[in-house]
Amino acid sequence: MEQDTQLVRGQTAPGTEVLGCGPGMPGKPLGFGLVHSLGPALVLVGLAGAADTISVIFRSTVVQVATPDPYRGRVNAAEYVVGVGCPQLGNFRAGAVGSLTSASFGLVSGGVTTVISAALIGLALPDFTRYRAGRVAV
After folding, report:
1. Is pLDDT at 127 greater than 80 in this prediction?
2. By the 8 A CB rule, do 65 and 131 touch?
3. What confidence tens digit (pLDDT) does each residue in 57-73 have?
4. Sign of torsion over alpha carbons 39, 88, 106, 28
5. How far is CA 91 from CA 4, 97, 123, in A?
6. Is the pLDDT at 101 greater than 50, yes or no?
7. Do residues 1 and 136 touch, judged by C-beta distance below 8 A?
8. CA 109 to CA 101: how far, in whole Å?
9. Is 43 exposed, middle or buried (CB count within 10 Å of its CB: 0-12, 13-18, 19+)?
10. Interatomic CA distance for residues 84 and 73, integer angstroms
11. Radius of gyration of the chain (CA)
12. Short-list 105, 120, 113, 125, CA closest to 26
Protein backbone atom coordinates (compact mmCIF):
# COMPACT_ATOMS: atom_id res chain seq x y z
CA MET A 1 0.00 0.00 0.00
CA GLU A 2 1.31 3.46 -0.85
CA GLN A 3 0.44 6.75 0.73
CA ASP A 4 0.63 10.06 -1.07
CA THR A 5 2.75 12.39 1.09
CA GLN A 6 1.91 15.49 -0.88
CA LEU A 7 0.46 17.69 1.82
CA VAL A 8 -1.02 20.49 -0.23
CA ARG A 9 -2.21 20.06 -3.80
CA GLY A 10 0.58 21.11 -6.12
CA GLN A 11 3.12 21.35 -3.30
CA THR A 12 5.89 18.78 -3.24
CA ALA A 13 8.69 20.71 -1.51
CA PRO A 14 7.92 20.71 2.23
CA GLY A 15 11.50 21.63 3.18
CA THR A 16 11.27 24.82 1.17
CA GLU A 17 7.82 25.52 2.63
CA VAL A 18 9.14 25.18 6.20
CA LEU A 19 11.88 27.70 5.44
CA GLY A 20 9.42 29.94 3.60
CA CYS A 21 6.82 29.91 6.36
CA GLY A 22 9.47 30.22 9.04
CA PRO A 23 10.56 33.68 7.96
CA GLY A 24 7.00 34.44 6.90
CA MET A 25 5.84 33.95 10.47
CA PRO A 26 8.33 36.38 12.08
CA GLY A 27 8.12 38.65 9.05
CA LYS A 28 4.60 39.51 10.19
CA PRO A 29 5.66 40.51 13.73
CA LEU A 30 8.44 42.49 12.08
CA GLY A 31 5.73 44.46 10.30
CA PHE A 32 3.68 44.47 13.51
CA GLY A 33 6.56 46.27 15.20
CA LEU A 34 6.49 48.94 12.50
CA VAL A 35 2.75 49.69 12.31
CA HIS A 36 1.01 51.94 14.78
CA SER A 37 -2.68 51.23 14.19
CA LEU A 38 -4.77 48.33 15.44
CA GLY A 39 -6.30 47.08 12.16
CA PRO A 40 -3.09 46.30 10.28
CA ALA A 41 -1.51 45.00 13.49
CA LEU A 42 -4.30 42.44 13.97
CA VAL A 43 -4.07 41.32 10.34
CA LEU A 44 -0.31 40.78 10.71
CA VAL A 45 -0.75 38.78 13.93
CA GLY A 46 -3.38 36.60 12.22
CA LEU A 47 -1.11 36.02 9.22
CA ALA A 48 1.77 35.14 11.55
CA GLY A 49 -0.39 32.51 13.25
CA ALA A 50 -1.41 31.05 9.90
CA ALA A 51 2.20 30.89 8.67
CA ASP A 52 3.25 29.24 11.93
CA THR A 53 0.54 26.59 11.61
CA ILE A 54 1.51 25.81 8.02
CA SER A 55 5.17 25.58 9.00
CA VAL A 56 4.38 23.13 11.82
CA ILE A 57 2.32 20.95 9.47
CA PHE A 58 5.06 20.80 6.84
CA ARG A 59 7.81 20.24 9.44
CA SER A 60 5.85 17.40 11.05
CA THR A 61 5.22 15.84 7.63
CA VAL A 62 8.93 15.88 6.80
CA VAL A 63 9.76 14.28 10.16
CA GLN A 64 7.10 11.57 9.79
CA VAL A 65 7.98 10.69 6.21
CA ALA A 66 11.76 10.96 6.27
CA THR A 67 12.48 9.25 9.62
CA PRO A 68 13.05 5.48 9.62
CA ASP A 69 10.59 3.54 11.80
CA PRO A 70 13.07 2.53 14.53
CA TYR A 71 13.95 6.19 15.20
CA ARG A 72 10.56 7.83 14.68
CA GLY A 73 9.66 8.06 18.39
CA ARG A 74 12.96 9.67 19.35
CA VAL A 75 12.94 12.07 16.44
CA ASN A 76 9.30 13.02 17.13
CA ALA A 77 10.21 13.73 20.75
CA ALA A 78 13.13 15.94 19.69
CA GLU A 79 10.94 17.73 17.13
CA TYR A 80 8.29 18.30 19.79
CA VAL A 81 10.80 19.76 22.25
CA VAL A 82 12.16 22.10 19.59
CA GLY A 83 8.65 23.09 18.50
CA VAL A 84 7.61 23.91 22.07
CA GLY A 85 10.88 25.32 23.39
CA CYS A 86 12.10 27.57 20.59
CA PRO A 87 9.09 29.93 20.63
CA GLN A 88 9.59 30.33 24.37
CA LEU A 89 13.23 31.26 23.78
CA GLY A 90 12.08 33.75 21.16
CA ASN A 91 9.59 35.24 23.61
CA PHE A 92 12.33 35.56 26.23
CA ARG A 93 14.63 37.23 23.69
CA ALA A 94 11.90 39.63 22.59
CA GLY A 95 11.13 40.55 26.19
CA ALA A 96 14.78 41.05 27.08
CA VAL A 97 15.53 43.16 24.00
CA GLY A 98 12.25 45.05 24.39
CA SER A 99 12.98 45.87 28.03
CA LEU A 100 16.43 47.19 27.13
CA THR A 101 15.32 49.16 24.07
CA SER A 102 11.67 49.30 22.96
CA ALA A 103 8.94 46.79 22.20
CA SER A 104 9.00 47.75 18.51
CA PHE A 105 12.75 47.21 18.28
CA GLY A 106 12.37 43.84 20.02
CA LEU A 107 9.82 42.70 17.42
CA VAL A 108 11.68 44.08 14.42
CA SER A 109 15.09 42.72 15.47
CA GLY A 110 13.59 39.29 16.15
CA GLY A 111 11.93 39.20 12.75
CA VAL A 112 15.10 40.25 10.96
CA THR A 113 17.16 37.69 12.91
CA THR A 114 14.75 34.89 12.05
CA VAL A 115 14.64 35.73 8.35
CA ILE A 116 18.45 35.75 8.24
CA SER A 117 18.60 32.50 10.22
CA ALA A 118 16.20 30.77 7.81
CA ALA A 119 18.34 31.88 4.87
CA LEU A 120 21.47 30.55 6.57
CA ILE A 121 19.77 27.22 7.34
CA GLY A 122 18.74 26.95 3.69
CA LEU A 123 22.32 27.55 2.60
CA ALA A 124 23.85 25.26 5.22
CA LEU A 125 21.41 22.39 4.63
CA PRO A 126 20.77 22.20 0.89
CA ASP A 127 19.35 18.67 1.19
CA PHE A 128 16.56 20.08 3.34
CA THR A 129 15.54 22.57 0.67
CA ARG A 130 15.85 19.92 -2.06
CA TYR A 131 13.72 17.40 -0.14
CA ARG A 132 10.68 16.44 -2.20
CA ALA A 133 7.61 14.63 -1.00
CA GLY A 134 6.71 11.60 -3.01
CA ARG A 135 5.06 8.28 -2.61
CA VAL A 136 6.28 6.09 0.21
CA ALA A 137 5.37 2.55 1.18
CA VAL A 138 3.31 2.35 4.34
Report:
1. yes
2. no
3. 888 888 888 889 999 99
4. negative
5. 36, 10, 26
6. yes
7. no
8. 11
9. middle
10. 16
11. 17
12. 113
